[in-house]
Amino acid sequence: MTTPIPRINPESLFLPLNKVRIEDSFWSEYIRLVRDVVVPYQWEALNDRVPEAEPSFAIRNLKIAAGEESGEFGGMVFQDSDVSKWLEAVGYLLASGPDPDLEEVADGVVDLIGRAQQPDGYINTYFTLKEPDNRWTNLAECHELYCAGHLIEAAVAYYSATGKSKILDIACRFADYIDSVFGQEPGKLQGYDGHQEIELALVRLYQVTGRPKYLELSQYFLDQRGTEPHFYTSEFEKRGGKTHFPQLDMAHDLSYSQAHLPVREQETAEGHAVRAVYMATAMADVAAKSGDVSLLDACKRLWRNIVSRRMYITGGIGSMEHGESFTFDYDLPNDTVYAETCASIGLIFFAQRMLQIEPVSEYADVLERALYNTVVSGMSRDGTRFFYVNPLEVHPEACGKNHIYDHVKPVRQGWFSCACCPPNIARLLASLGGYIYSSKDRTLYTHLYIGGQAEWRLGQDQVQINQSSNYAWDGKVRLELSMDAALLFTLALRIPEWCHGQFNVTINGVAHDISEFTVEDGYLLIDRLWQDGDMVDLAFAMPIMRMKGHPNVRHTAGKVALQRGPFVYCLEEADNGSQLHRMILPREAELVARFEPDLLGGIEVIEGTMLRETSGAWNDDLYREEEQAGLGLSETRAKFIPYYAWANRGPGEMMVWVRSL
Amino acid sequence: MTTPIPRINPESLFLPLNKVRIEDSFWSEYIRLVRDVVVPYQWEALNDRVPEAEPSFAIRNLKIAAGEESGEFGGMVFQDSDVSKWLEAVGYLLASGPDPDLEEVADGVVDLIGRAQQPDGYINTYFTLKEPDNRWTNLAECHELYCAGHLIEAAVAYYSATGKSKILDIACRFADYIDSVFGQEPGKLQGYDGHQEIELALVRLYQVTGRPKYLELSQYFLDQRGTEPHFYTSEFEKRGGKTHFPQLDMAHDLSYSQAHLPVREQETAEGHAVRAVYMATAMADVAAKSGDVSLLDACKRLWRNIVSRRMYITGGIGSMEHGESFTFDYDLPNDTVYAETCASIGLIFFAQRMLQIEPVSEYADVLERALYNTVVSGMSRDGTRFFYVNPLEVHPEACGKNHIYDHVKPVRQGWFSCACCPPNIARLLASLGGYIYSSKDRTLYTHLYIGGQAEWRLGQDQVQINQSSNYAWDGKVRLELSMDAALLFTLALRIPEWCHGQFNVTINGVAHDISEFTVEDGYLLIDRLWQDGDMVDLAFAMPIMRMKGHPNVRHTAGKVALQRGPFVYCLEEADNGSQLHRMILPREAELVARFEPDLLGGIEVIEGTMLRETSGAWNDDLYREEEQAGLGLSETRAKFIPYYAWANRGPGEMMVWVRSL
Q1: From the list A304, A313, A622, which residue is nearest B623 (CB)?
Q2: Which residues of A are less than 8 Å from B588 in CB distance?
Q3: B432: which residues sit within 8 A by CB, 6+ positions away?
Q4: Which of A191, A657, B64, B246 has the fewest CB atoms lying closer than 10 Å?
Q5: Is the CB of residue A357 less than 8 Å from the CB of residue A292?
Q6: Do B624 and A547 touch (CB under 8 A)?
Q7: Residue B61 included in any domain
Q8: Residue ranges of the Non-reducing end beta-L-arabinofuranosidase-like GH127 middle domain (chains A, B) (predicted)?
């Protein structure tokens, strides 16, 4: 059980969060919002003290389970996970800087979780309070291991930040108990959870504790998934056909939870998008640790299928509301889309894990696309309102009146009864520092250009990196290195796909020809004896790009989307009037980017002249012959804003893919 | 109670069905299918003898209610109406020609209905068998008066065709009983049905029997609708909140059944499309008979809203599956559309009633549009398969995989458990002769150009009209008149909107200049002393029209649909390959119509050269910058077929609105 586990590759491990501090003109404000607004608000919500939100019951459930309050369980079957996600976010915030008051509150939550833990290590307030005899009888639907996974992630984050082992001990006791319940051995359950999460959490627990059994249990859950005879069928029959979410029929719609095939045989991303990418994240984790090439190949196939066939230009995934799911190749409707914020966060997890296995810039490009567009779109500019669904085209009147849009909101919402997205945004942004740099041997990779400081330990030496940039808006980045003595190492700098290889490099003020350097898998490798105070300046070309969708995508046919740097752009009614479908972007239109410091927190807008269809002599007819329709085209000034900034000025039409000529 | 009821106008009454015989190159085959295939098949279905269909239980329910069989009620709450619609269609078939075997079967059904009638006159097998104590406790949901309405319509049709009064007596007893239950008087129910139908049926019963109380009861139901305090609320409370279709919440979603406002205050067509047009039909009926101008104004407003804001180019209505409903102005999605066949049939009823009040060609134009496109699309070329939903764009893979299309079928279906559409098509086509001619004083209107013979009684005289035409394909019509002696009257011939006023008139072989005649409300009036043997030839210009949707319709932006004569055209994969969204119709494309006798029963196809987007150097990327996308355009031959003929060659893509330049 303790034989060393082979690795697929020397991994490029990301610098841990406590070694990276973000000071960035774009991101610092979002992280501040997480710290000052989202996490405190969420704490109030968890304690049922937000009058305008449905009560969460989450803290109360724990108190009842701990025997300290009386009452009934409240909320969803996975309500516990909201507390864990909050605690995880708190852990990340504390890793970036002290906050004694917050830590005191969090310590109290840790204590409460400890008191709610059952003698055998089990923690789940739904089953403890409502169905104490039915533990592990409905894995397909009831999120038992999912909640365990979030608790473990919280434990790892909080322990890593504070060094306090109490929550880690709680999580290990729970994980040990789970390990005693599940496994190949006779008498154990050969099951796995309907919502993947425990798998990636156990790998993190393994990383922190060094105990291989957690990695092995994760691998067991992955290996077991989708095998025949099918676990969901047998547990469904055992519990007499009782079902928790009848409208979804999870016990039989196997692809909904990616349980339709063994994971290594899955060629396409199917079902619930969040589950799919959480699963793929764990697959990449286990492949990296176990050296399982067939698992890695499966990850690559799923990745290729998602990014080449099933991803919106905003990095959103999940084309339909039913099952919050993927549909099929090239099916990417812009208006009835789901593109859940959490799914893009999961895609970022997956991308990060793939980057650790092989530093190939495509992973970071997709990570950046999801981060700068769908994820940051998920939260309002003041941190109080959120999108669950991130449409690429909205007609507000339709959202209320045509029920195919019931899931699409034209403005961000305050809080959700199924509150998965806001805490997920919080934990991602609070841990954003952990996505910027990774190292592999003597190479330091910069995947994201986000300003701040980082410390990299290279053998016995230490390198400090100070990144300053206004990258998102002007493509310019400066990296300054500090070290005690000169060091030979490679700085690997990601070349974003959107610059099309057009960029300048200056080292200590001296311009270099790019041909002096090697470019490998999308990274510019600067291999030299670095001196304290060395300074690298990068300037990536940031043209306004007219993007086209693959010709097989029927929803982008005849349309273009604008992109500049990491940002995808959109038209909003607030700037362009209503009836955006009448606007046409001619091929020869001159487009100019201009910074508007007072608009939506300061954004670079794109302006140009478009054509607008005029009604002319059109009368009350609904249909007319073209010749007699009297339609005309008039020139009109148009303003595009970055997609993430939409819906901050009240309800209005929005459109990413615009008609083009 | 017997005071004469004022009329809004001298009406133009349609010639009754037994005075019109259809012999038409296009329609006779459809009517033959109704007689030889649909009605016999439906009879087998009603008797649960169709192995591949879910059992109907409809005849069995009647037998159980008559005490002749034992068992439980089966089917939907409105199952009785299927028997009535069948009997109504049989009545129309018998009106057009004798069929002793069919009549014998139908007489048996009449007898059975008589035996199932309760002593007080009530007929409804659902309530009689399942909830005998709950009659009239759930008008909003349970279709009790709807079923009564269909029984009355069947009775009127069967009595009118055969002269046998038994079914009429049954219907009158039932209607008299209903009249004793509902009304303003104390002790009576102040209610009305959730699904309008009784209202128009009672007017027909009034027309056949001459008894004003049926008209007054119809008017009562219309007047009562949508008034406060709301009947649905009071009956909902009285029955303790019991609900029959919980997913629709009909008791509270008042606009679903057009009960949100008094009918005269309804400005827009809302809710379930079939109900809306059945209601409007009855409103027009009552307005015509009662002289109620405010009711007529409401009809005109609803008409205007539908045809100017909420109707597909195919004459389909109902933009969404949820509630089979209208949505809002200019919301006409082509792929998630509902456009139920029954709704277009109801629109035809409404149009016919408006034509009776004022012969204005727009009503007939819309009637023709719905008839030649959505209605006839509803049935396969062999009469065995049917569309409930009539989409304007289909991507078959999406129908199975993206659940926003769950209601859209890429091929016609055999029979439905809620079998409303096939019998509705049957009864409409079997009574099609009743939609062709109407007369007002000394004017004979020809609304539809359908070949066959008709007899018109003009005072003491009789005029025979023999129409022969290949109108639908070539725009040519010949009318030959026979009469005993010369007669002075006006022949009013509809000028279809699609000819844009371009047509030739020849009388007895002599060409006339159109300016010789008056054109009134879209009808060419030929006022002369007609002689036996007179012959009028019409030749309407039938250009291929590139149609545009109103600029406010976002779903037709940048697209055109082809129309030629009454037919809207579409592209099908069978002729044009897949990925129809890649095809573009340039403005200058030369389009040619050509008759293909062996294709789909003989159709005029439209051919021309279109452009098709080629992938060129596009690689595995999902998004590329336009300049580097390597997209190209190649010329491709395209073939359009009439919309009604689609989906007769297996599943494949179909598209009405095609991209244009």
Answers
A1: A313
A2: none
A3: B22, B27, B31, B450
A4: B246
A5: no
A6: yes
A7: yes
A8: 443-542
A305-309, A407-411, A639-643: range with lowest mean pLDDT:
A407-411
Same domain, A72 and A181: yes
SS3 per residue for B286-307:
HHHHHCCHHHHHHHHHHHHHHH
Cβ contacts (< 8 Å) between A558 and chain B: which residues?
Answer: 558, 584, 659
Is residue A4 assigned to a domain?
no
Indicate the SS3 state at residue A167: helix
Burial grade of B166 (CB within 10 A; 0-12, 13-18, 19 or more): middle
- Please, what is the angle between helix A144-162 and helix A100-116, to 10°? 140
Q: What range defines the domain where residue B463 resides?
A: 437-540
**CB distance B478 to B534 below 8 Å:** no
B44: three-class secondary structure by DSSP: helix
CA nearest to B373, candidates B338, B410, B337, B339: B339
Are A549 and B323 a contacting pair at CB < 8 A? no
Same domain assignment for residues B221 and B141: yes
Q: Distance between CA atoms of B106 and A652, rounded to whole angstroms?
A: 58
Structurally, chain B folds into a number of domains equal to 3
Q: Shortest CA distance to A363 belongs to which of A282, A407, A302?
A: A302
CATH number at residue B53: 1.50.10.20
Taking only the tens place, the pLDDT of each residue in A281-313 is 999 999 999 999 999 999 999 999 999 999 999
Residue A7 belongs to a domain: no
Q: Does the pLDDT at position B441 exceed 60?
A: yes
Same domain, B549 and B449: no
> Of A540, A572, A602, which marks where a domain is finished?
A540
Catalytic residue selected from B235, B324, B572, B653: B324
Choose the final residue of a domain: B540, B562, B584: B540
Structure tokens at B301: 């407003």
CA separation for the pair B202, B278 (Å, rounded): 12
CB-nearest partner of B402 from A327, A584, A587: A327
Average pLDDT over residues A458-467: 96
Give the DSSP per-residue string, B250-266.
TTT-GGGGT-SS-GGG-
Q: Report which of B464, B466, B496 is spatially closest to residue B479, judged by C-alpha positions.
A: B466
Query: Does A508 lie in the same domain as A479?
Result: yes
Average pLDDT over residues A551-555: 97
- Decide if B53 is inside a domain: yes
Across the range B343-353, mean pLDDT stands at 98
Residue contact A558–B584, C-beta within 8 A: yes
Residue from B256, B488, B586 nearest A661 by CA: B586
Closest partner residue to A618 among B309, B551, B614, by Cβ? B551
Assess whether B525 and B548 both reside in one domain. Answer: no
Q: In A, which residues are within 8 Å of B629 by CB distance?
A: 548
% pLDDT > 90, chain A: 90
Cβ contacts of A315 on chain B, cutoff 8 Å:
none
* Closest by Cβ to A551, choosing from B395, B582, B628: B582
Backbone angles phi, psi at B286, to 5 degrees: -70, -40
| Residue type (1 letter), A153 | E
Q: Do A308 and B557 touch (CB under 8 A)?
A: no
Query: What proportion of chain A, given as a percentage, has pLDDT over 70?
Result: 98
Instruction: Give the pLDDT of residue B1.
Output: 39
What is the Cα A512 distance to its own chain's centre? Answer: 36
- Percentage of residues in chain B with pLDDT exceeding 70? 98
Residues B120 and B140 in one domain: yes
Do B551 and A613 make contact, defined as CB atoms within 8 angstroms?
Answer: yes
- Residue range B458-491, pLDDT digits in tens: 999 999 999 999 999 999 999 999 999 999 999 9
Test A625 with B546 for CB contact under 8 angstroms: yes
Q: Which residues of A carry out catalysis?
A: 324, 420
